[in-house]
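Record type: monomer structure entry
Structure origin: computed from sequence
Chain ID: A
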Amino acid sequence: MGATRDVTDTIVGFARTLRAAGVGADPERVHAMLAALDHLDVLDPADVYWAGRLTLCSDPDDLPRYDRCFAAYFSGRTARPGRRPPPPVVVRRPAAESGAEAGDAGDPAGAALAVAGDVEVLRHRDVARLGPAERAEINRLIALLDASSARRRSRRFAPAPAGRLDPARTVREVLRRGGEISLLRRRAHRTRRRRVVLLVDVSGSMSPYADALLRFAHAAARSGGRTVEVFSVGTRLTRLTRELRHRDPDTAMAAVSAAIPDWSGGTRLGAELKEFLDRFGQRGMARGAVVVIASDGWERGDATLLGEQMRRLARLAHRVVWANPHKARPGYEPLTAGMAAALPHVDDFTSGHSLGALQELARLVGTSSRQGGAHA
């Protein structure tokens, strides 16, 4: 009975990871996978791999995401994107890292469950309190996040099987057929991904979280392509979009470290937000975009200026999301002058302090509707 419960908890956790990566993996499909495993050997990684792939995936685009998540969740590896790896072999971590007893070393199922359990525990750990091995694992899982935005309707039209009548194409078709009306051509609005702008605070008070948040920005840039723009804020506004174009997260982070001149300095959020809106807002970068501000709100400048610029940003943006890692602390209240000035103009207020919180942040970025007020 205990083993069955362990397997169920492991598969439910795996499905949660898949959903965060953009794979449907709804409860009905999870039940189908568990039913399939009733007829297979749960100690065989290949059986588990194929049972999940055949039940949890519903689209060809799900397959590479499934492969990457399976490799990371059950064996702590990151599969190479774009290639379909063979069924992964579950590799047991050293007992010192996984916390498992040495007596379980010969049990493949125990190894898989132990690694999966470690991942689930790590999902809720504050990244400021992680050891080197745990941080490396979290960094690999952040790289798997899909933080792409929802699609929005464009003003441009494209040919479509249904929709409004396309007079120009219909007339051309009639002329081509010698005046015979045989088919009415139609058109519909094209869709495109909504722009995402991330402003990441790299001041001293945010230094325990800046690396994880910038890695999240890299995952967003990778999944959202050229619709994503990233800036660091502190005492200076620095555009990091080009540095985060590197596919490899560690290479991108090295480029970011070299580009940011004000690591662990002070915070002038109001002045930096004004500079962003003056320089880039007029170009339409913020207009209709999802804007994510990752900061603890410790404003050393004028909080009134921050409130004014947040009001200005809210008028331009489709959605404003604020991620404050300190929000997860027991008893936290947004009492600092900066947060008090900013919150009335925020649509979503979240934490971003852990892998689970970053998964929630990715979900908020991909939400199409506006909430109309900050909420927990």
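Annotation 1: The two ends are 37 Å apart (CA to CA).
Annotation 2: Residues 78-105 have pLDDT under 50 and may be disordered.
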